[in-house]
Amino acid sequence: MTQATDGQDRTPSENPDVCVVGSGPAGALVAYSLASRGHDVVILEAGPRFERSDRLQQMEETIRPEGSIEDVWDVGGERDRYTSSGETFYGLNKTRVKGVGGTTLHWLGIVPRLHEKDFEMNTRYGLASDWPIGYDDLRPYYARAERELGVAGSEDNPFEPPRDEPFPMEAFPPSYSDSLFAEACDELGITMHSIPQARNSEAYDGRSGCVGYSTCIPVCPSGAKYSADVHVRKAESEGARVIDRVPVQRLEHDDTGEHVEAAVYATPDGTRRRQTADRFVLACGAVEIPRLLLLSKSDAYPDGLANSSGAVGRYFMDQPIVSIGGVLDQPTNQNPIGYHTSETHQFYDHDDPSPGSIKFVFENVNPMTAATRALRGGDESTRGDLTDLFTGDSWGDEALEEMRDDVPNQRVGLFANPELLPREKNRVVLDESRTDQFGNPAPNVSWNIGSHARETMEHAREIQHRVMDEMDAEITHESDLSSPRPASHKMGTTRMGDDPAESVVRPTLRTHDLRNLYIASGSVFVTGGAMNPTLTIAALALKAADHIDESL
């Protein structure tokens, strides 16, 4: 038996029913759902296990002047090499975590449902493609996902799709700055409402209510915000096994090319192991899943495993962010609570094809926390200058006195997620010139905005200006529409469909090409809308688990 230097047993499990690759929300929910029904499950995770007892220390590290998300979550280096080749730079390592829990270890926790129109884009507008399933097919899974994650929300959103059950917890109340936005929105006929979020507004599922550390990104020390390691631990309590720090190198299939036989993974000491199973589930995200399938090419699949359609890696989606900020001539009295409390979906459903859907979020803007100001010398006038991380002007008692005399925060902000349509040229491919520590080609992400999204971004900016003008806000900054940053909502690359010539997985989440290979991920999205995708990913994972259970 070979063990890594940390003493952990990383030998393969013997004849499990299911092997899950990845332990983010999709992998964790699939593993728990199947293990709780008596199936033998093993999870292979490329990154380490981050102990929950270390969260407070991690938070303290991130608010130090030299702290960074990448350092706290062990992102970067040879393992995480990538290339961005599209017209707009895609900073992949700024928005992902490889570890038990995946990117939910540092997400914001916003969990709306997709709208009905998102599943019917071609039928309604002649754009993109329809999903092979509709909103009603996912409706019961959405409700299950809200219960599993623990979602705080309110039925005050007149634009949301129909639902059958109330939210598990009450919504967070609106902030004071939300009330300032509300006055302007009332004049403009814009309806604000609460935000569903996977953050406990009260004790739920053995975790405390939110205590307001204000560091949701990059780390929640209290555990009030959901992260997928919650369901990993639940899966383990049902008998599932987790093997961490074992990046999967390739999948091997049988002689017929119809069944996956093994996932070949590497241990920290470089040893290669083969994990066999009856069923395999890929749940490692919309970048690493196509990369793994392309790395697994064979004589039977010369263009990559499960890629007879040629769609693996194509139709990558992520919404561009459109943001604006300003100052008022009155204090906004904000506390750095770390998350948002109000948004509007009023501009989501639309009659004409363009502009597309927009989700607006009203920001709780605080220039920095008291702790950060203290560490930076109490000087908040240099906000936005990266050098102020290292060049505070005052320290100790002097800094405290400046903070006591600090002027009230007068900042307001508003950002939007505009819809980006799937485009064949937006894709994940292998970069043969850039390799990881094992010599495997790194992922190359090509992210291009397109005319539909750009028209929608312009429309979002116009609405933002109307709101800021109504508030008599002095605009201090606007995001660059020509080079937006992504929302970190990675979707597409192994799309769902009925036609095996145009898609990678069936509506059951099983691949067309291999009878025992399933994909549970945002990678199966056909369109992405303008919503945060995690709740839909969770719903699809629960759906996949039901189909896998039926097949075993």
From TrEMBL:
InterPro entries: FAD-dep_OxRdtase, FAD/NAD-bd_sf, GMC_OxRdtase_N, GMC_OxRtase_C, MIP_CS, P2Ox-like. This is Choline dehydrogenase. Keywords: FAD, Flavoprotein, Oxidoreductase. Belongs to the GMC oxidoreductase family. Residues 422-541 form the Glucose-methanol-choline oxidoreductase C-terminal domain. The keyword Cytoplasm does not apply. Residues 98-298 form the Glucose-methanol-choline oxidoreductase N-terminal domain. Its cofactor is FAD. GO terms for molecular function: flavin adenine dinucleotide binding; oxidoreductase activity, acting on CH-OH group of donors. Residues 476-501 are annotated as: Disordered. Residues 17-50 form the FAD dependent oxidoreductase domain. PANTHER family: PYRANOSE 2-OXIDASE.
